[in-house]
Amino acid sequence: MNPTPQPVGDVSPLELRGVSLGSRVSTRLHRTDLTLAPGSVTSIIGANGSGKSTLLRLMSADLQPTDGRVLMHGADASGLSATLLARHRSMLAQETSVAFPFLVHEVVGWGRFAWRRTPAAADDARIIDDAIESQGLTSLRDRRVTELSGGERTRVHLARVIAQRTPLLLLDEADADLDLVGRRQLDDTVAALALEGTTVVVVSHDINRVAPHTDRVIVMSRGEVHADGQPVQVLTEEILSKAFGTAVEVSDEAGRPIVRLPGAQPPGPMCG
Predict the structure, then answer these.
(1) How far apart are CA 147 and CA 91, in angstroms?
(2) Is 91 helix (H, G, I), strand (E, B) or coil?
(3) Percentage of the chain surpassing pLDDT 90?
(4) Radius of gyration of the chain (CA)
(5) Of 15, 35, 152, 153, which is the most exposed, with the fewest CB atoms less than 10 Å away?
(6) Domains of the chain, start order
(7) Rounded to whole angstroms, what are the CA distances from 181 to 174, 200, 243?
(8) Are the C-beta atoms of 206 and 270 separated by less than 8 Å?
């Protein structure tokens, strides 16, 4: 069995080399080359159907490319077992539900499954409690997940992937059902994990909210990377108007770009 991928110096936790996904009749993702830096936060934005979630699922190795390679700390992801993948990357998908009345702490504990029968399992209880606390769920730890609101359930699943303790965390619109407090907790959690060396990739509709907390923005359009760089480089009227297919205004407020549709007041989320 291959060893668990581990950070080695400056080796990238995730690299896409010539990755594409499609068939003879359609292409979901055109040839893409990406390298993520350790401890970085990357946001993926774009119009609906632009390929954001497809790119994220290829990054997680939940989808296999038709061409190219996905490397995790230099190891080809296609050769890693499900357990080894779960020790390397954690993924919160858009559609996540629990049909049975499990308790909150039980669902969060699922994040530790890949570490069973390893020395890391000795810290399971503490890690689960820390993850629950990080999402403000301590008072709900013994509640049934089926009794919670949509936003509370999202926070439970956030705690679950945080408890997984992987060097790569992928979040697909994790903020969609969260209120203001939940989004602040999410931002704080992402920042803290990045400081600890975790590489985080976020897909979000809310450009203005994620921009101040990200090192890099990838703009998707029609299944390809339309732009890639620092927020101030990428969040421009020209780039976003082309990517979203509509006029977009970008203003500078307190040194950061604010994106809005023409005539929109006050600045709010830009859907993508």
Answers:
(1) 24
(2) strand
(3) 77
(4) 19
(5) 35
(6) 12-258 (3.40.50.300)
(7) 14, 20, 30
(8) yes
Mean pLDDT confidence for 135-148: 95
Euclidean distance between CA atoms 205 and 244, whole angstroms? 12
CB 98 within 8 A of CB 107: yes
Distances (CA, A) of 149 to 31, 110, 154, 218: 40, 20, 9, 31
164 contacts 90 by C-beta, under 8 angstroms: yes
Give residues with Cβ within 8 angstroms of 76, minimum separation 6: 69, 70
What is the spatial distance between Cα 234 and Cα 228, in angstroms, rounded to a whole number?
6
On whether the pTM is more than 0.85, the answer is: yes
The vertex-160 CA angle with 158 and 166, nearest 5°, equals 95
Given a contact cutoff of 8 angstroms between Cβ atoms, the answer to whether 14 and 42 are in contact is: no
The pLDDT-based confidence of 1 (bands split at 50, 70, 90) is: very low
- Give the DSSP H/E element, type plus range, for residue 159: helix 150-163
* Region of residue 49 (phi > 0: left; psi between -120 and 50: alpha; otherwise: beta): left
- Burial of residue 253 (CB within 10 Å: 0-12, 13-18, 19+) is exposed
Residue 167 neighbours by CB under 8 Å, 6+ apart = 5, 6, 7, 13, 38, 73, 88, 89, 197, 198, 199
Q: What is the pLDDT of residue 272?
A: 43
